[in-house]
Every structure is written in structure tokens, then in C-alpha cells.
Input
Amino acid sequence: MATGTSSRIELSVVQHGRGIMVSNAGIQGGEPSERSAWDAFVTLADADGSAAHPHHARLIAGGPGQRNLSDAVHALCAVHGDHPGLIADVLARAIQPEASDWLAVAASGFADERTYLAHLTAAVGPLPSTPGQAESESALVGERHALEMLARSERRGCATGAVAALLHDWRAIRRVLDVAADRFGVAVPTITLPSETDTAALVAELGASPGCQRAILFGAQQLFAQHRGLWSLLEARSSARGDL
Output
């Protein structure tokens, strides 16, 4: 059994690595849509965002296994819990100065989310024992590296698109965190991230040119792909423990 479950974890890791260039929405960086950048972004998010993944739905559907919630919190903390993180890195690099005010609000708000993650990680207890742990840790390291590369992109719009995707997707991720908070007795703080209205206006404005729209959508696609891979990894780990 150990060999079979470890193989499922390894397969998830391989799929995660390959998934970085794949979009369920079919947006692959070709000619920009005639729609606004935000409309195209939302189409991408609906197809590729966390809310579309079956394991995310499983966790928020009610009555999820405690080990599944604990595993999800630990993984999200491993990817997004370190300082300074994707948003602060993009703000510091200032490739698009016109996005600086929005990025500053986002960086401050995400610092609050990291604090929430830290409290949750302490509350949920140790990482659940799972076959294939070494492969899982390798996948999480790869995910953090991919986010670092996105933050360092010199292509105008790419890093901004990744941040917009993180902010959009975080609201779905927050639903899982809040379920865990309720289960483990942690107070749920108010979200202080930029509103979706503000993010939509910025993406539409910065993505008015075809080249920048392509870059924004590319960055968003990569961020969504990383999160999609993370949920698939957690799903494989849950299956390996017999918790599905």
C-alpha cells in the first residue's frame, strides 16, 4: 500500500510541475481578447481558480476530516506564510509604478493574512502523517520557487497579474481557512485586502494595451496553476491517508 500511495503523491507532484503552462480556460498568451483585461481575467479565474477544484469544494462542503483541514492549513502556510512574500516582492521591485498604491494596500492586507495563517497553523496541531512526505515537501519548495520567479518577472504586467490572481483566489482560500478556524476555535479576522472593485479597475486600466493584457493574463494563469497544483497535491495526500 505504501508504494501505491507514494506513487499517487509522486504523480501529483509531476502533474503540478507540468501544470504551470496549462489553463482550463484555454488562454495561452496568444492574441489578447477583445474583452477588457478584467473580463478575460475573470474567465480565467472561473476556470482555473481554487473554487473550481474538487478538493477545495470538498473541504468547504461541511464536515471535512480534521486531518484534511490541518493538512491544507500547513500547506498554505508553507507556500504563503513566509515574509515578505509575493506581493511585497512585487511592490519592492516597482516594475509598474502605477500599481504601487494598490500593491501597498495588498501587501499590508496580506501581512494580516500571514498572521492569521500562523495562528491557524499553531491551532491545528502537527502535520498529519502521510505517505510520500518527501515528495510533498519537494512540491511545496517548487511552488515557492515558482512564486518567487513570478514576483521577479521583468515583463510589465506579469507580476501584477500574479498578484491580482492571488488576491482574487485568496477569497476562495479564505473559505477553507475560515472552516478550519471554526473547527479549531480560532477567531476569524476581517479581510483587509483591496476590494475586488479596486482590483478590477486596476487590471482593466493596466491591461488596456494588448501587450500588457497578455502579460497580466499570463501572470494570473501561472498563479492559478500553482494553486491548482497545490489542491491536487492535498487531494492526493488525503487519498494516501484514506481520508477522502
